Amino acid sequence: MIEHIHWLGHASFRIEGPPCIYIDPWRIPDGAPPADVILISHEHYDHCSVRDIEKLSQPHTRIITGIGAARLLRREFDVEVLRAWQSVNVDQANIKALPAYTFDEYHPPHRGDVGFMISMRFYDIYYAGDTDFIPELARLGCDVAILPVSGKEGTMTIDAAKQLVRAMRPSYVIPSHYGSVDGGTKLDAKALETALQDEVKFLWREALTP
Fold first, then answer.
1. How many Cα atoms sit within 13 Å of 164 on the Cβ side?
2. What total of structural domains would you count in the chain?
3. Which residues does 1 contact at the CB level (< 8 Å), separation at least 6?
4. SS3 159
5. Is there a contact between 182 and 154 (Cβ–Cβ < 8 Å)?
6. Are 164 and 54 spatial neighbours (Cβ–Cβ below 8 Å)?
7. Residue 88 structural domain
8. The pTM is what?
């Protein structure tokens, strides 16, 4: 399954199916494969880009988001809203929205931001979005965890990410939200890898072709 996950920079990913799923596409190059599904976690510009959604969309593309981003995207697109714990089946994938919020003012719980659990090819892939390690996540498990590593306001700290990994017990961790002016650096990702040491396999961008 790992070979079907592609990091596209910052917090953007493509998962090859079927279906072809993009998560929070931003700064996507021309010629990228079209999307069957586009998942948007929240409305911040580095996660919710109208231009990139337009670039990837086809007549059949389903745009699925939480409540907060839906308010913005409904001006341009037909969107499907998933509240936390709701799920939908698309082709051979099940997509469940999970709560995502932080303990600061950047992502308050009432805004309706979400993360996603994508179940396909017998794997559960957790995409955190921008969230702290919140109580609602403590009893979940996954095979792959895609976690922000910037350690700044609006995302979990390295220590919180470490606690989440130990709770969810994934086999693989993929860092996100780094490598751009709006995220962390490779040093932040390395700090998480060092903190986890031999507890989990850490996948760098070199293992995830664009």
1. 29
2. 1
3. 120, 121, 122, 123, 125, 143, 144
4. helix
5. no
6. no
7. 2-204
8. 0.93
Query: Alpha-carbon distance 143 to 119, whole Å?
Result: 10
Cα 164 to Cα 138: distance, rounded to the nearest angstrom: 7
Predicted local confidence at residue 181, as pLDDT? 65
Render pLDDT for 41-59 as a digit per residue (tens, 0 to 9). 999 999 999 999 999 999 9
Residue 110 resides in a domain: yes
- CATH code at position 18: 3.60.15.10
pLDDT digits (tens, 9 = 90+) for 118-172: 999 899 999 999 999 999 999 999 999 999 887 666 678 888 889 999 999 999 9
Return phi, psi of residue 65, to 5°.
-155, 170
Q: In what order do the strands lie in the sheet with 5-7?
A: 5-7, 13-15, 21-23, 37-40, 62-65, 79-81
Torsion angle of C-alpha atoms 13, 15, 19, 25, degrees rounded to 10? 10
